[in-house]
Amino acid sequence: MPDMLPIVLVPGLISSPRIYTPVIPPLWQLGPVTVANHIRDDSMGAIARRILKEAPPRFALAGHSMGGYIAFEIMRQAPERVARLALINTQARPDTPEASARRRDMIARAHAGGYHAIVDELFAGFVHPSRRDEAAHRRLVHDMADDVGVDGFLKQQAAIMARPDSRPTLTAIRCPTLVLTSDTDNTIPNSLSQEMADEIAGSWLVMLENCGHLPQVERPEATAKALVEWLRG
Q1: What angle do CA 216, 43, 92 make, to 5 degrees?
Q2: What is the pLDDT of residue 108?
Q3: Domains of the chain
Q4: Phi, psi for residue 57 in degrees, rounded to 5
Q5: Quick check: helix, strand or coil at residue 161?
Q6: How does pLDDT run across 113-142, given as a tens digit for each residue?
């Protein structure tokens, strides 16, 4: 058997390793899996530097949502270390003024003790409309938010608001790249995944049906299948 490629998975906003739990077993068969810790720093540059310091010399990199923003920063800092790239329900654009204003409001509310109310509001946009009443998905999102904690959430929001525009760097990506999205992502529209796939040479776009912003837990088998094909391709 050839040497297996290490795999580094980066979660999104208020997400912890739990988000990848359903898809790790099939990935683990193809290489050692690490879920990066992205709650210790308040800028994309610092988060990426810490992940690179802790990562294997060369690895496959998958980033979900905010994790995709971090993945773009890793690609700017050390593209030679990334053998394969997967961008899951994310975008290359920077924050809009309107999005940053919403984040500042959430930061103020979190400081005032409203963290779990914010998580409830975010949940409505995280899952497919048909799953908004599913207690298991809601509990998972709240459990992950507890893993991240208020301090981690505040750092994440600061990093997201200040992230750079990654669109100018898309054409510089040369490694095999999967762009995975969903038909009903009400947090990051799938048109922005198409935008990335159009600019990254040789990339391939996979769109999952009946799925929202959390494909790893909403459509785990289809997500794992796409990631396995990405690693084997």
Answers
A1: 55
A2: 98
A3: 1-233 (3.40.50.1820)
A4: -60, -35
A5: helix
A6: 999 999 999 999 999 999 999 999 999 999
